[in-house]
Amino acid sequence: MSVGLEHFLVVGAALFGIGLLLSLSKRNIIGVLMGIELMFNGANVTLVAFSRFLEAAEALAGQVLVVFSITVAAAEAAVALALAMAFYRRRQTVDVDRADVLRW
Amino acid sequence: MRPLAPWWDIRDLGNAVGALLEWLADVGAPSWLTYVVSSLVGMLALLGWALGSQLFFIWAERRLIARMQVRLGPNRAGPFGLLQPIADALKVLAKEMVTPRGADRILFWLAPIAVVVPAITVLAVFPFGERMVLADLNVGVLYLAAISSTAIFFVFVAGWSSSNKYSLLGAMRSVAMLISYEVVQVLALLSVPIFVGSMRLGDIVAWQRDYNAWLVFLQPLALLGFIIASAVEVNRTPTDIAEAESEIVAGYHTEYGGIRWGMFQLAEYIAGFAVAAVMATLWLGGWTLWGLEEWVPGWVIFLAKVYGAFFLFIWLRGTLPRLRIDQLMGFAWKFLLPLMLLNTLLAGLEVLVWRETGAPAAVVLPAFALGNLALTGGLVVGWAVLLGQLRPERRPARPLLVRELGAIYYRPLEEAREA
Amino acid sequence: MGAVAAFWVLSTITVGSALAVALVRDLVRAVVALVGSFLGVAGLFVLLSADFLAVAQVLIYAGAISVLMVFVIALTPRGARDNSETAMRWPALALAGAMTGLMTTVALVAHWGPQVKEGLTETAAAIGEALLSRYVLPFEVASVVLLAAMLGAIVLVREE
Fold it and tell me: Which chain A residues are Cβ-neighbours of C144 within 8 angstroms?
């Protein structure tokens, strides 16, 4: 038995689904962010699996896209955590249910 | 790579391992068994070397620092204190391992393990000789940076899980220091693959052997930045704020007793050896010594360089006073990081000039060496002068108490100087 | 055969740690499980012959992003640390389950065509050349994005 494309795609789908669950249901901003990072990871695994197993006109295009995906994920995590800090400084909480007014 | 010599040729211990693997294949072992045996031999050899070196250097460091401080050092436990590491190990093993009441039990147990594992794992990629590499990875230099960065997270977990606010403070200061100097360290590391054209450590050593030029002469600024950044990364004085006796208790490993504290010390020493091995491989020529490796075993040369680089760290520890956390951070972000960026730019420019002109290496490399050494001296001195000549309100500020006491003490001196 | 065993071990670690992030009742333990998941994904990248990406994943995710997260947890002492869910947990579970089911079905049912069976190659040099030849515009834009993110983060947390 060998490991093929479908196995990695299922792993990527599982990671994406768990990340989606986390980002929609967690009460803490950090929990939501962990879900977003897991979604990024699921997408990266899927991209690299496609790059490895399927022929493409441009070899390693999937891996280059994952390089950019990791870069943008790092930038987004930094900004999101800065937002969390700024929110905490205003409202003294990191509960997403408390982020319910448009101005203060 | 030269062909496999007979197994008793100790100039390259890989010959013996190769002979063992060939015997296994002849006897008819399956290929997975050969792979497992070769990996096990490499791993056990690395572990044995790291632990043995650590035992020796516990004694050597204390004696050397004592000599630098005009005192004797341990000389009670055995002749010349040589059994001191054994005594230390026995003491550490016999101490009680207390878990604080509010501590997070799983994370408290996990943190010492997770700090030691990256320190040992990073040793896998160093070429001790021509055939003595456990894993000559294609992305070796990046692997070094990546594995040492995973230890940083678990330093914080160690401080957090102790349920001790001083541990947490020490852990946060330590992690802030570590992530700042990690940027400097990775930039310093990256200028070597720019020059050599490959991230594989075996290729870097081969480049230095083929061009008969150690990279220390071609990239001195990078080595300088790497030495300073690595001294901080392994928490050695003058930057051991996390664990010094006069600082916040003992930083992130206050609550750890017995063998758990021993694991943190182990991680520090093995990380120190790893960093010294990086210096020896990337800048000092690895296991080659301008042709001497024909007679002297390559691993002896490599170990001599590693221990020499580690002696430099011991020397720094015995000589320099401890730095404050704000002095450290200012030094990293305002002084070292711009210098490392400039160094990366210069390395790229030099490689471009070399490729475009196509000049022979014997002409180009000495020119680069002289230019780089001059630039290193000039940049370091110039940047320091520039930072010192800023307007007084923008100079790095000293803490309030020191300023006030200093003003009381220095004002008469300045008035006397102006008069 | 070793690759099959490695795949099952690594994917168990990855998906198991991701489930642990959802289920543990302490926030810092969840971040530690997240780091475990990142390291598992790095192992999967090695299996997929993406050596440079594996090391980059460890360096960026497990080495930097996780440190950012625990720093924010430590700097928000009044925030709840029990990793609880909001009232939306059951709709979120239903939606996530539906999405995962849909993607798994597509993955297993679709005809992906002939699969390449090559082994390991060395991708670092090829990625580097691609980044500086064909993909140089996204490369430069990514550096601008990083600069903007750095500036934005500094501005957002600055003391007024």
Answer: none
